[in-house]
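Office hours follow-up: a student asked to see two folded examples consecutively, so here they are.
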Amino acid sequence: MSVSLTGKVVEIYDEGSDRIGIVEFHGRRRPVYLNLVPEAAIGNKVRFHAGFATDLVSTDETLEESFVSQMIPAEPVAPHLQGPYRILSELDSRQLRKLLPLVEEKFFGSGAVIFHSGEKSKYLHLIVAGDILLEEDTVAQPVQITILRTGDALGWSALTSDATTHFQARALSGVATLAFPGAPLRALCEQDNELGYALTKRLLELVTGRLDAVRLRLAGLH
């Protein structure tokens, strides 16, 4: 489930070319990107969704969100603003505003199977926090392929209509992801070719880096 919440900006810092705001809401604090609201300042209230502040909220605007806060599952690990958010942060504001409504925030407990090999690819997951093991599970004894960490993507074959997963993905710890459902994501990329190219290019860079890491690991085994 992914919902928009409102909080107060209590700190702002730079991360590369991005401005990050620490937002306080319902007794919690979370880092969010301020790319879509560059005018935000400490003390401002912002509405945020999937790690991005989307709007400034006027001080006289009241939002009843206590019931929404109670519906949000406790995060198994603290979110980090690393790879997955950087993939999105490099998109322009128009592209971001199209993508963010699709995202679902998902949480998996340690040991949970996120998907088995051979399943229909339903989601593109961007790992916000936690570690995920990719393993070959079609043999008698599962074989470890690689461990994905914060900043990695999995299920990228959801960008194609008939693709299935190649490996089993299992949470090694509490895991939080941003999950983009395949069909709406594909439709959006087909409607907006520039967005589709930008997203695919960044995902290919990430997947290429993963393949290089696996190749080096296999070389070390021989």
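And the second, which I mentioned at the end of office hours:
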Amino acid sequence: MTGAKYWAIVPAAGSGQRFGSEVAKQFQPLGDHLVAQHSLSRLLNIPCLAAIIVPCDTTSAYWQQIPATIDTRVELVAGGSERVYSVLQGLKAIAGRAASSDWVLVHDMARPCITSGDINKLIAELAGHSVGGILATSVSDTLKRVGADNDIQGTADRRLYRAAQTPQMFRYGLLVKALETMLGDGRTPTDEASAIEYLGEQAKIIQGRRDNIKITHREDLIIAAAIMNQQETEQCV
């Protein structure tokens, strides 16, 4: 498995319905750029990435406002109706170039605060791993299990749980098999790691930074802007 290449897939075919806007969250303004520009530019800071595949609506005029797309390593391809299908489209786009043992980093376009430090940490700690792993953080809030009517049914031991982030990094061949197997059984993975788990494989947790937030609601843009200002002072982007 020596000499494996690294590829990134950043699904961005979302319509913005959950965000509550006609404009998808990846095209929302964040500081001087749109969200997608921040996410892609941070991945472009990682020299070992052979290509960054973006499954999306390639006809959207918003991509003309993303300077990162000019970089030769960034490739826009047609996305799917759901995230998992977009990831598969990205995997197909590199099928003729990627070896089975190559690494694929799948990252949320809506996580523009990811740092080079965390990405490099993920790559370094998983270099010799046969499966792969994900960035995640410990859970600080108390977790309640609730019923259908929102009545509390119990309290979970938060020491046993982690909050999953991205990038999630797995071997190319294994990731393709995991996603196709789970979908073939009529199941939809919530993230790449859940498909790996479905195969019975064990992914590794790599401790990530808490500021690697996912933009889901409008107020998250305000939080992300504050995080980026702080990160600039730390010079950790």
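Two things to take away from it. The domain at 6-137+166-228 is CATH 3.90.550.10 (Spore Coat Polysaccharide Biosynthesis Protein SpsA; Chain A). The chain has one domain: 6-137+166-228.
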